[in-house]
Amino acid sequence: MMMTTSLPLIENHSPAHICPYDQACSYLEWAAKELKLDQGIVEILSHPRKVITVSIPIKMDTGEIRVFAGHRVQHSDILGPYKGGIRYHEAVTLREVSALAMLMTWKCALLGIPYGGGKGGIPIDPKKFSVGELERISRRYISELIKDIGPSVDIPAPDMGTSAREMAWMMDTYSVNMGHSVPGIVTGKPLSIGGSLGREMATGRGVMIIVRESLADHGKSLTGARVVIQGFGNVGGAAAELLHKAGAKIIAVSSGAGGIFSESGLDIPAVKAYAAENRRSVVGFSQSTPISNEDLLTLSCDVLIPAALENQITQENVDQIKAQFIAEAANGPVTLDANQVLEARGVTVLPDILANAGGVVVSYLEWVQGLSYLFWDEERVNKEMEHLMVQAYRKVIHESKVRGVNLRLAAYTLGVGRVAQALTDRGLYP
Question: 309 phi and psi, to 5 degrees?
Fold first, then answer.
């Protein structure tokens, strides 16, 4: 397609009309076609409701003043307050944040949680800043957004490059500005200020639950199942630990620099302790053979869990994939073309908006606890989360059978369908 730089083109592509990652919109259109939605509804849902970019001027430790850009995209609040993480990563763009905000809308709707989708981010590499600089950036960012967020408006959470520490700064900044403590403004906070038990492991636990349910549906069990996990961060590490506990045999895991393999199964607690001492890397773990991230994906196993980056399984390597089940713990690790090839071979692909939804479920439970000032023990949090995850899984399986479509499309028709229904019932203002 020829691109010219005439003025109308720029106007058409104003930030409020970002159709992010064209992939996020193609999911919407795909589901809309299956649901036979009215074009007007699709048009409304294709655009984020609000796109906010703020200027963040910061005094660096050297005394120099630098100005950063901070984004927050609020896609839809048809079902409830906007919800979504804040990422600090060099590659953050408005386009990416808009896409992720839209995917959050479908994810919350699929899980039956009363939230809409939002996402925020600042294009910085947090490793290049001191703790004091990060604190000043986080606090100024939130104070610039103060009119656009709130426990019943928009509730940020941690994401890539942010953690409970940043959430504590953000909660404090918001609370100081309000004149009283507001625990419900963010989720993923430290326990001391109203965080929830079970939050750390939540996304990994959700992955384990979805894998367990899917194996059971096929007459298999976690006990002895051979599992390969790409990524050993918060999600992959927690999933490895819980699957190992449940009796699965984890034969390979990897971190950014490469992976480790053991035919007889890795000692996951030992790997975890090793990674904690080696800057989160698993490379060099003694009772194992080194393996590259590329080769790890093609190992013969029952379950493959890509828990690192998007677009890991593509047309290029799909023919080498030997797993029977793939659980998308990362966002979008299997491309749509690869998904079709795998489905045709009878591989079960458990889509990201279902498989990695454990984090947002426990965020919701944290928010509920914060609003009611009534805190639960870990057992109750895990039980509530399990109930919501299993319920969503059952609905996706049912939808897939009734419509005769793959699990990804079934998950999106449920998510998009719920939002479209609410939009239809609420009508269009004015």
Answer: -115, 170
pTM score of the predicted model? 0.90
Beta-strand (E) ranges in 134-188? 154-158
Please answer whether residues 365 and 385 qualify as being in contact, where contact means their C-beta atoms are separated by less than 8 angstroms: yes
Question: What residues are paired with 155 via a beta bridge?
Answer: 83
In the chain, the number of structural domains is 2
Query: Which residue from 225, 137, 145, 236 is spatially nearest to 185, judged by alpha carbons?
Result: 145
255 torsion bin: left (phi>0), alpha (psi -120 to 50), beta (else): beta
Q: Give the chain's end-to-end CA distance (angstroms, integer).
A: 38
User: Could you give the dihedral angle defined by the CA atoms of residues 163, 168, 173 and 176, in that order, rounded to the nearest 10 degrees?
Assistant: 170
Residue pLDDT, tens place only, 260-303 = 999 999 999 999 999 999 888 899 998 899 999 899 999 999 99
Q: What is the average pLDDT across 145-164?
A: 95
Domain boundary among 355, 377, 412: 355
- What is d(CA 72, CA 356) in angstroms, rounded to the nearest whole number? 22
What amino acid positions are annotated as catalytic residues?
A: 119
- Residue 414 in 3-state DSSP? helix
In a domain? residue 40: yes
